[in-house]
Amino acid sequence: MDGAALRALIDRDQVWPRVAAKYGVENPVPPWKTSLDGLCDALDRADCETGVPTFTERRDEEDALVATTYADLPYPENQLVALAHSLLERGVISEADLRQRMAAVRARLEAT
Q1: What would the mean pLDDT of 7-22 be, rounded to a whole number?
Q2: Residue 83 in domain
Q3: How many domains does the chain have?
Q4: pLDDT tens-digit profile of 76-100?
Q5: With b meaning 16 or more CB within 10 Å and e meaning fewer, what string describes 6-23?
Q6: Model pLDDT for residues 46-69, shown as the tens digit of each residue
Q7: Residues 6 or more apart from 63 whose CB is under 8 A from it?
Q8: Does residue 41 fall inside a structural domain?
Q9: 3-state DSSP helix/strand/coil percent for the chain, to nearest 5?
């Protein structure tokens, strides 16, 4: 994994507190947090699939990554990026898939 897609995401520095302040949103929880929680729940139930981490593996990897590699990101952004990192490392998703999905999300956001 070369991590270019994750580095590009981090380099944009669009953490929720900054985005919320820019758009006058008072909710301290980003709107995508429930989707992240749902994805984690789905992964926990799909751990029999090849490459998908078990609950314990996912949490251990998340804890290690947010304490080191992604320590400068706030929560829950660090949780999101740590999960993407783990899924990329395990080959569950590819860098191309991640870039494509990020571009689709950006296009939807910019269309509004």
Answers
A1: 90
A2: yes
A3: 1
A4: 999 999 999 999 999 999 999 999 9
A5: beebbeeeebbeeebeee
A6: 866 678 888 999 999 999 999 999
A7: none
A8: yes
A9: 65, 0, 35
49 secondary structure, DSSP code: S
Whether the CB-CB separation of 62 and 76 falls below 8 Å is answered with: no
pTM over 0.85: yes
pLDDT surpassing 80 at residue 2: no
Residue 20: inside a domain, yes or no? Answer: no
Asked if residue 38 belongs to a domain, the reply is yes
What is the distance between the alpha carbons of residues 107 and 53, in angstroms, rounded to a whole number? 30
Indicate the helix (H) or strand (E) that contains 37: helix 33-45
What does the alpha-carbon distance between residue 26 and residue 63 come to, in Å, rounded to a whole number? 28
- 69 is in which domain, residue-wise? 4-12+32-111
Q: Is 84 helix (H, G, I), strand (E, B) or coil?
A: helix
* 87 touches 93 (CB < 8 A): yes
CA 31 to chain centre: 13
- Match 């290690």 to its residue by tokens: 64
